[in-house]
Amino acid sequence: MHLVYPAVLAVLLFCVGLYGVLARRNAILVLMSVELMLAAVSLNLVAFDVWLRDAIHAGQVFTLFLIALSAAEIGIGLAIVLLVHRARGTVALDELRAGREPRGPQRETE
Question: 7-11: long-range contacts at Cβ-Cβ below 8 A with a sequence spacing of 24 or more?
């Protein structure tokens, strides 16, 4: 197996994820982009494990840990995004970063 094919695919996945993190304004899309980046790292770990013919398969073991980490990250991240959406009414990162109330219909206070 050539190492170039999975490495190029992993680089493309990582670049798409990096673009999504840097360019998106929605918190859920940023979390999805982080997942793409983690998938690229997993692909690299498995590809190098197969290429090096490691006896203990360390790359695959690290990939299992990375899958568990990404599942925990998406669970906690989604819970935080839902709580922020309930409290602020938006998940737009530029409005949350500025610390101001979201644009849109004004809420009445009693």
Answer: 7/44, 7/47, 9/43, 10/40, 10/41, 10/43, 10/44, 10/47, 11/40
Mean of pLDDT values over 43-61: 92
Question: The whole model's pTM is what?
Answer: 0.80
Its domain, for residue 50, covers: 28-98
C-alpha span between 77 and 31 (Å, rounded): 7
Q: How many whole angstroms separate alpha carbon 77 and alpha carbon 108?
A: 30
Instruction: Decide if 80 is inside a domain.
Output: yes
- Model pLDDT for residues 63-96, shown as the tens digit of each residue: 999 999 999 999 999 999 999 999 888 888 888 7
CA distance 107 to 91: 17
Q: Other CB atoms closer than 10 Å to residue 48's CB: what's the count?
A: 16
